[in-house]
Amino acid sequence: MPPSAKTAAPKSAAGSLASFCPWAAEEGVRVYLRPVGLMPVAAWAKGAAVPLAGGRFSFATAELIVRQGSRQGERIERAFAPLSEILAWGWERSRAVAETLDRQLGALTRARAPFGGLELGRPAIMGIVNVTPDSFSDGGDFLDPAAAIAHGEALLAAGADILDVGGESTRPGSAPVAPEEEEARVLPVIRHFAGKGAVVSVDTRHARVMASSIGAGARIVNDIAGLGDPLALPVVAKSGTPVVLMHMLGEPGTMQRDPHYADAALDVFDWLEERVARCAAAGVPPERIAVDPGIGFGKTVEHNLAILRHTALYHALGCAVLIGLSRKAFIGRLSRGETPKDRLAGSLAAGLETLNQGAQILRVHDVAETAQARALWEALHPL
Questions:
Q1: Is residue 84 a contact partner of residue 8, using CB atoms and an 8 Å limit?
Q2: Amino acid 12: pLDDT
Q3: For a surface tag, which of 23, 112, 216, 358 has the fewest beta carbons within 10 Å of its beta carbon?
Q4: Residues 113-135: what's their mean pLDDT?
Q5: Angle CA(132)–CA(118)–CA(223) in degrees, nearest 5?
Q6: Sign of dihedral through CA atoms 32, 346, 290, 139?
């Protein structure tokens, strides 16, 4: 059982936290736990750590982050300390702070339920099938349903656990597609693979397309708008379909026009936390949710890097964590990947780094290469 702040905290904080952030009990303060110093899960079995989301890692130390917005501006303080000291520090500040830390620690340590029928003991690979004329990486390659089906078959053979079928490009600057056109593109592909028993997700932000795709056999809804369509949440709740909630700043057409955050990693966490709570209130529990911080969707290179460095933070939402960074433009800006298809090495490197922080699902274009990288990663990090 994971520790509880009520049962595991010593009587007083010590060491580096003795005088840390005396204003933490003030109104409007938010606190966050980011696991650091991850160890093999065997450390949990030996009583030296707690498990991270039921996966291959455990931790005994975390980064404690405290933030408060005010008229004078945002203030953020950070400290690294053992969990026992952090929990004791919380009780010394206020009951509300302590209970927030206790809740986050429970979410961090709770094993994740299967998602879309898939066990998450090993990271899942979500292969991308863009049935579009204008997606940023492979637009037009698989617009014909027969070509999309052939591509999906190849991805399954290469090791994809999920096929993510989308009919609307959401690259920066893209224009929206009518739901009727989107349905015409994706439904034949979804029906084909659902009929074969494959795990299919539909990549859409339109409630109508979600409903028709679920009817065609899609097991997961992957929504870049985080169920922003007013009718989307009722569709997901009524059908019992698992959903991926992604963060996006603005709309695809405008999201890359000078995006700003007070703190990118924390702002994305807050937004996702609100969406998860909204889903829970409608009857969609965290077990049926994966969260995606939305790399490249209204973010600069530095925003993307800050979020990726904080991947472990998002486990505190109590959901599976999905990362989609395959072939993204920020990789090219940091290297020589001028075209999307030149960014394989960077995609693999960044994807493996998120696995090292416990991410459960990688959404990728290059399934065979990712599956090979995952196999080596699993051998290096045995359960």
A1: yes
A2: 60
A3: 23
A4: 91
A5: 35
A6: positive
Catalytic residue from among 171, 191, 299, 363: 363
Backbone angles phi, psi at 181, to 5 degrees: -70, -40
Q: Which residues on adjacent β-strands are paired with residue 29?
A: 68
Choice among 328, 336, 343, 374 that is catalytic: 328
Q: Is position 34 annotated as part of the catalytic site?
A: no
Alpha helices in 174-311 (DSSP H): 179-195, 207-216, 232-239, 264-281, 301-309
Identify whether the C-beta of residue 202 lies closer than 8 Å to the C-beta of residue 222. yes
Tell whether the torsion through CA atoms of 241, 246, 65 and 282 is positive or negative. Answer: negative
Token pair in block for residue 8: 């595991």
Q: What share of the chain is helix, strand, coil (3-state, %, to 5)?
A: 40, 20, 40
Is 341 catalytic? The answer is no
pLDDT of residue 103: 98
State the pLDDT at residue 140.
55
Residue 13 or residue 9, greater confidence: 13
Q: How many Å separate Cα 254 from the centre of its chain?
A: 22
Mode of pairing for the β-strands spanning 220-223 and 243-246: parallel
Q: Which long-range contacts (CB under 8 A, 24 or more apart) does 110-115 make?
A: 110/2, 110/53, 110/54, 110/318, 111/51, 111/53, 111/54, 112/53, 112/54, 112/55, 112/287, 112/319, 112/320, 112/360, 113/287, 115/220, 115/242, 115/288, 115/290, 115/320, 115/360, 115/361
Q: Rounded to whole angstroms, what are the CA distances from 128 to 8, 84, 215?
A: 44, 42, 21
**Locate tokens 């520090």: which residue?**
89
Q: How many CA atoms lie within 13 A of 294 on its CB side?
A: 30
Tally of CA atoms within 13 A in the half-sphere of 7 that contains its CB: 6
pLDDT for the residue 2? 46
* Alpha-helical runs (H) found in 49-130: 83-93, 95-109
The backbone torsions φ and ψ at residue 169, rounded to the nearest 5 degrees and listed phi first, read: -70, 135
Q: Which two tokens stand for residue 140?
A: 């037009």
Q: Give the pLDDT band (50/70/90) at residue 7.
A: very low
Q: Is 379 exposed, middle or buried (0-12, 13-18, 19+ CB in 10 A)?
A: exposed
Q: Give the list of residues 6+ apart from residue 326 with CB closer than 8 angstroms, or none.
A: 128, 137, 343, 347, 351, 362, 363, 364, 365, 366
Please state, in angstroms and rounded to a whole number, the distance separating the CA atoms of residues 220 and 354.
22
| pLDDT tens by residue, 32-88 | 999 999 999 999 988 899 999 999 999 999 999 999 986 557 899 999 999 999 999
